[in-house]
From TrEMBL:
Matching InterPro entries: C56_PfpI-like, Class_I_gatase-like, DJ-1/PfpI
Name of the protein in its database record: Intracellular proteinase
Family to which the UniProt record says this protein belongs: Belongs to the peptidase C56 family.
Domain of life the protein comes from: Bacteria
All residue ranges annotated as the DJ-1/PfpI domain in the record: 6-168
Length: 174
């Protein structure tokens, strides 16, 4: 249990990519991390793209990101909604400033783009937002997982094992 005593925020909103939320949450919990699910509302049921529900533990405004060691942004269509909340962008910026691990997969890059933290970073994502990532100043590569300091990015569900291996490694070494 290499992540004992680590606390991770996982962002949620409707239409998250089911595997891109649940696989990381379960793997991190298996490694001993506390993973809190946060959304616009506390104790609210959010439904994934394929119908798998999740209930948020807290609202964005209920948590202090300084109390956490990392943040996860799932893909799907949820990132397009999540990036509209100033609280979410502030959390991502704060995590970036503190050099805490930030995990993003698939369309989750939209949140990091809106938080304006990608300039000069090397990342990956779904190819569908490659132009968005490069226009934000990032160098985009087509790899299953990319680690650039504390930022861990991945492309899509088949890459989840590689993504979580690297994210767990980065978090364990913080």
């Amino acid at each position: 249990m290499q992540l004992k005593n680590k606390k991770v925020l996982a962002l949620v909103d409707h239409d998250f990519e089911d595997l891109e939320l649940w696989y990381p949450v379960l793997r991190l919990r298996e490694e001993g991390a506390q993973v809190d699910l946060i959304g616009k509302e506390a104790n609210h049921k959010y439904i994934g793209k394929y119908g798998v529900p999740v209930e948020s533990d807290f609202a964005f405004t209920d948590v202090n990101d300084a109390d956490y060691d990392a943040i996860l942004v799932p893909g799907g269509w949820a990132p397009d909604k999540l990036r509209r909340f100033p609280e979410v962008l502030d959390m991502v910026r704060n995590m970036n400033q503190a050099k805490k691990p930030i995990g993003q997969i698939c369309h989750a890059g939209w949140v990091l783009i809106s938080a304006n933290i990608l300039n000069g970073k090397t990342v990956t994502s779904t190819p569908g937002i490659k132009d968005d990532m490069t226009n934000a100043g990032a160098t985009w590569v087509d790899e299953p997982v990319v680690v650039d300091e504390h930022l861990v990015s991945s492309r899509r569900p088949p890459d989840l094992p590689d993504y979580l291996r690297e994210f767990i490694n980065v978090l364990a070494n913080k």
